[in-house]
UniProtKB/TrEMBL annotation, chain A:
In the C-terminal section; belongs to the phosphoglycerate mutase family. Substrate binds at residues 265-272, 315. It holds the Pfam family His_Phos_1. Residues 44-258 form the 6-phosphofructo-2-kinase domain. It comes from Umbra pygmaea (Eastern mudminnow). The keyword Hydrolase applies. The active site is at residues 266, 335. CDD domains: HP_PGM_like. This is 6-phosphofructo-2-kinase domain-containing protein. Transmembrane segments: none annotated. The keyword Kinase applies. GO terms for molecular function: ATP binding; hydrolase activity; kinase activity.
TrEMBL record, chain B:
SUPFAM superfamilies: P-loop containing nucleoside triphosphate hydrolases, Phosphoglycerate mutase-like. Substrate binds at residues 285-292, 335. CDD domains: HP_PGM_like (cd07067). One of its GO terms (molecular function) is ATP binding. Gene3D superfamilies: P-loop containing nucleotide triphosphate hydrolases (3.40.50.300), Phosphoglycerate mutase-like (3.40.50.1240). Residues 1-35 are annotated as: Disordered. The keyword Cell inner membrane does not apply. Keywords: ATP-binding, Hydrolase, Kinase, Multifunctional enzyme, Nucleotide-binding, Phosphoprotein, Transferase. The active site is at residues 286, 355. Residues 57-278 form the 6-phosphofructo-2-kinase domain. This is 6-phosphofructo-2-kinase domain-containing protein. In the C-terminal section; belongs to the phosphoglycerate mutase family.
Length: 478, 498
């Protein structure tokens, strides 16, 4: 029929089978899935990456390390931080004074170098054997010599290196830093505030003389970002790949201005009351009551310049309407798409799709509804929301159960296993306030009754289980 | 509230009112319950009665910025300012931010007779200086009308802007009008890059039409020298309060200062991901599928026999291209993966490349849609870009979904993307700068590969039909798009199928 000779192939295309959990099409032989080629992984890097912090003490290195690690893990890039100060604390049981860090303290230098090497060893272990993709090497790394040691180590192991330097001379920022995270450090557990601050300032001085910041000329072949004055300015050099590009984008969007993020679900919906999932119904009577209470609560909080975000589903918008402030609708905040199971009760899902129901219990994070989504898909969908949340200040997000779990997992550093089972009950507002290296959570229940929509993982997750075993954890409904 | 306060209130985006104001409003709000209605085209829920607080009911894309933004290019000639201006404008328009380029050189060409020589640009040429300043002012005036009368959100002011004095003029203009300013400075001292630049875009400029290539290059280099004398780059200290990005040597290094808002952050991210390394992007749809054959949309079927043949032919074609390090991307749908399988090379599956979700219309034929949902069918014809299928997506949603794909395509070099009709239309619209009105009607037939190669300020397109017959799946906009049209009128443009 055609004269195209290229049609004749040496090998015929492989048969495809759809993985029952994630609904991914993969090649198979005799019905068994073959070793599969890549499925879109966020981290587009072929080799592991070593992120190396650089900077004097109290410049936010650990803050950046922890936050970046949390973000990368959330988007699905296995990341771990290695804090050399922690290795030092494990080695030198008791911290006496800043003199340990004196550049002429030979004993101290030996110990500190040893700690760095031990940490690098653990990095190698993590990246080559334990399946890690990114390691964050959190230390001052203020001398060119130390950085050379690290780059040599990385070259030997075929790791890419990306430096993150934090430069800051604003005394107020440094003082606030010390108050927030140094006073509570194990090093100063037995000191009073003045003593601790005095000692720490002397510690910083120990590093200052030998500090060699990344240099535009001397270090022009290195890949790095220099963060200046907590983000007023950035110098970015030689970004090599996708993951480094994402890291730079993230670092350029975070800030440390005090603010609070309020997370809440929509008010109870008509479908909630019936025990049905998904859909696009309106609020029940109690849901409307909650919306009004939410409005009152928000006013009482007297929040400066509050932004309000909703999804594009009726129930979140109805809720926001009662709060009576301008709001923005994000499609990305829509509830997880349950595909063929939309608007079903759990009992119906068990009846019509018992296999699917069991698979979901086996791996709730990765399980994708037929013609629907998985929590893993949700996280990818929500990443731009998180990025914008980082940019914003005071904000109220009115969303849905699965969506709220994903957002909460990001802020509270929850794993993929924990995420789908986080408790996000109706009519409860979570107020998240960044503090020190983490997030303070206040849970405010607005005292309006609502159904429970939380279904725990049942004991028996086998596909051969009895219906009752599957439905034992389904919450009560009409 | 005092008069000045209330003026500020209306000028800014409505923010949280004072305590007393909201208390009063909530009292009336709790009495009446706002009813919501769903806009039939975009399926967006909006309040039935409009209240002052809901001016910004929100669209499917978040608010990027509150005030119009002027992007001001800075740099000597042949540093890629116009290249960046055009590319950035194309990207911003594609993601839904109305943007326009104002190229002062073009104003100069319109104002003067014809270009004679570099002498026009000599800093001591008083006559020319007057003209050049007048052109800049005229361009600024047009920026103003673009923002105030044409609903523009971003204006890219493309000129050398190499002196502090000129930048001051722009800054005061922006301040007087309440516009934000973001500078993009391109610095380059690599003579190889500059000469390549001159070859690619200057020799063909209207200024050098009919000139000998060597003469043109010589003249242009002297033109650059004219600017060098008075060039004052953005300064770390003096310009510390300005918002800008400095790009060194086509992206090996960036200096970013005082990013103010979301749109500036997105612009910086975009600029840091683009490159000028020569490469080609291949766009194709999956091979003909079982559902294609019977005129049904969506679904997740496998390839028809002809589709399989195409997959084989695609493999042959790609091998003949002898591409260094080709990446292959597919969607998560069976038909694109089956197509890629035939290539025998590793490929990556992107969920973001999945075909547009037709919601309740999935797997229907157009005849069935007309039969079951005649109003939806008409609404789609009225505004195909913004129309969202019930429980499905719109082209507008697709673009948002595809933005990370475009960003990664910018980072990559040689890539083959095996995708779907609506998805391919969106990607193509990005590369070829097609408007939202044209996008949903771009022709992307089955069994045809589009090879896109960036050249000068745009993209060269080669269309390769791999000689394997397939159904036509392109439905043109019918003449009658009224909701009350006859079925025959609605189905007039439906392509043939089994």
């Amino acid at each position: 029929m055609t004269s195209n000779e290229d049609v004749i192939m040496a090998t015929s295309p492989r048969e495809l089978t759809q993985n029952p959990l994630k609904k991914i099409w993969m090649p198979c032989k005799n019905g068994m899935p073959e070793k599969h080629i890549s499925q879109r992984r966020v981290c587009m890097t072929n080799c592991p990456t070593l992120i190396v912090t650089v900077g004097l003490p109290a410049r936010g290195k650990t803050y950046i390390s922890k936050k970046l690690t949390r973000y990368l893990n959330w988007i699905g890039v296995p990341t771990k931080e290695f804090n050399v100060g922690q290795y030092r604390r494990d080695c030198v049981k008791i911290y006496k004074s800043y003199e340990f860090f004196h550049p002429e303290n030979e004993e101290g230098l030996k110990i500190r170098k040893q700690c760095a090497l031990t940490a690098l060893n653990d990095v190698r272990q993590y990246l080559t054997v334990e399946g890690g993709q990114v390691a964050v090497f959190d230390a001052t790394n203020t001398t060119r010599e130390r950085r050379r040691t690290i780059t040599r180590f990385a070259e030997q192991n075929s790791f890419k290196v990306f430096f993150v330097e934090s430069v800051c001379e604003d005394p107020d920022v440094i003082a606030e830093n010390i108050v927030q995270v140094k006073l509570g450090s194990p090093d100063y557990i037995d000191c009073n505030t003045e003593e601790a601050i005095e000692d720490f300032m002397k510690r910083i001085k120990c590093y200052e003389n030998s500090y060699q910041p990344l240099d535009e000329v001397l270090d022009r072949d290195l890949s790095y970002i220099k963060v200046m004055d907590v983000g007023r300015r950035y110098l970015v050099n030689r970004v090599l790949d996708h993951i480094q590009s994402r890291i730079v984008y993230y670092l350029m969007n975070i800030h440390i201005t005090p603010r609070s993020i309020y997370l809440s679900r929509h008010g109870e919906s008509d479908l909630n009351v019936k025990g049905r999932i998904g859909g696009d119904s309106g609020l029940s009577g109690r849901g409307k009551e909650f919306a009004t209470c939410l409005g009152k609560f928000i006013q009482e909080q007297n929040i400066r310049d509050l932004k309000v975000w909703t999804s594009q589903m009726k129930r979140t918008i109805q809720t926001a309407e009662a709060v009576a402030v301008p709001y923005e609708q994000w499609k990305a905040l829509n509830e997880i798409d349950a595909g063929v199971c939309e608007e079903m009760r759990y009992e119906e899902i068990q009846e019509h799709f018992p296999l699917e129901f069991a698979l979901r219990d086996q791996d709730k994070y990765r399980y994708r509804y037929p013609k629907g989504e998985s929590y893993e898909d949700l996280v990818q969908r929500l990443e731009p929301v998180i990025m914008e949340l980082e940019r914003q200040e005071n904000i109220l997000v009115i969303c849905h159960q699965a969506v709220m779990r994903c957002l909460l997992a990001y802020f509270l550093d929850k794993s993929a296993e924990e995420l789908p089972y986080l408790k996000c009950p109706l009519h409860t507002v979570l107020k998240l306030t960044p503090v020190a290296y983490g997030c303070k959570v206040e849970s405010v229940c607005l005292k309006v009754e609502a159904v429970n929509t939380h279904r725990d993982r049942p004991e028996n997750v086998d596909t051969s289980r009895m219906p009752e075993e599957a439905l034992v954890t389904v919450p009560a409904h009409q | 509230m005092s008069q000045t306060e209330s003026k500020k209130e209306t000028k800014k985006e409505t923010k949280m009112d004072t305590k007393t104001e909201t208390k009063k409003e909530t009292k009336t709000e709790t009495k009446k319950e706002t009813k919501l209605t769903q806009n039939p085209l975009e399926k967006i829920w909006i309040p039935f009665l409009s209240s002052k607080l809901n001016q910004r009911r929100g669209s499917s894309v978040p608010q990027f910025t509150n005030s119009p933004t002027m992007i001001v290019m800075v740099g000597l000639p042949a540093r890629g300012k116009t290249y960046i201006s055009k590319k950035l404008t194309r990207y911003l328009n594609w993601i839904g931010v109305p943007t326009k380029v104002f190229n002062v050189g073009q104003y100069r060409r319109d104002a003067t007779q014809s270009y004679k020589s570099y002498e026009f640009f000599r800093p001591d040429n008083q006559e020319a200086m007057k003209i050049r300043k007048a052109c800049a002012i005229a361009a600024l005036k047009d920026v103003c009308s673009y923002f105030t009368q044409e609903q523009g959100q971003v204006a890219v002011f493309d000129a050398t802007n190499t002196t502090t004095e000129r930048r001051e003029v722009i800054l005061s203009f922006a301040k007087d009008n309440g516009y934000k300013v973001f500078f993009i400075e391109s610095l380059c001292d690599d003579p190889g890059i500059i000469s390549e630049n001159i070859k690619q875009v200057k020799l063909s400029s209207p200024d050098y039409v009919g000139c000998d290539a060597d003469d043109a290059v010589a003249d242009f280099l002297q033109r650059i020298d004219c600017y060098k004398i008075t060039y004052v780059p953005l300064d770390d200290e003096k310009d510390r309060s300005l918002s800008y990005i400095k790009i060194f040597n086509v992206g090996s290094r960036y200096l970013v200062n005082q990013v103010q808002d979301h749109i500036q952050s997105r612009i910086v991210y975009y600029l840091m991901n683009i490159h000028v390394t020569p490469r080609s992007i291949y766009l194709t749809r999956h091979g003909e599928s079982e559902l294609n054959l019977v005129g049904r949309i969506g679904g997740d079927t496998g390839l028809s026999p002809r589709g399989n043949k195409f997959a084989g032919a695609l493999g042959g074609y790609m091998r003949n291209q002898c591409i260094r390090e080709l990446k292959v991307w597919t969607s998560h749908m069976k038909r694109t993966i089956q197509t890629a399988e035939a290539l025998g090379v590793p490929y990556e599956q992107w969920k973001a490349l999945n075909e547009i979700d037709a919601g309740v219309c999935e797997e229907m034929s157009y005849e069935e849609i007309q039969d079951r949902y005649p109003e939806e069918f008409a609404l789609r014809d009225q505004n195909k870009y913004h129309y969202r299928y019930p429980k499905g997506e719109s082209y507008e949603d697709l673009v948002q979904r595809l933005e990370p794909v475009i960003m990664e395509l910018e980072r990559q070099e040689n890539v083959l993307v095996v995708c779907h009709q609506a998805v391919m239309r969106c990607l193509l619209a990005y590369f070829l700068d097609k408007s939202a009105a044209e996008l949903p009607y771009l022709k992307c037939p089955l069994h045809t590969v589009l090879k896109l190669t960036p050249v000068a300020y745009g993209c060269k397109v080669e269309s390769i039909f791999l000689n394997i017959e397939a159904v036509n799946t392109h439905r043109d906009k019918p003449v009658n798009v009224d909701v009350d049209r006859e079925p025959g009128e609605a189905l007039l443009t439906v392509p043939d199928h089994i």
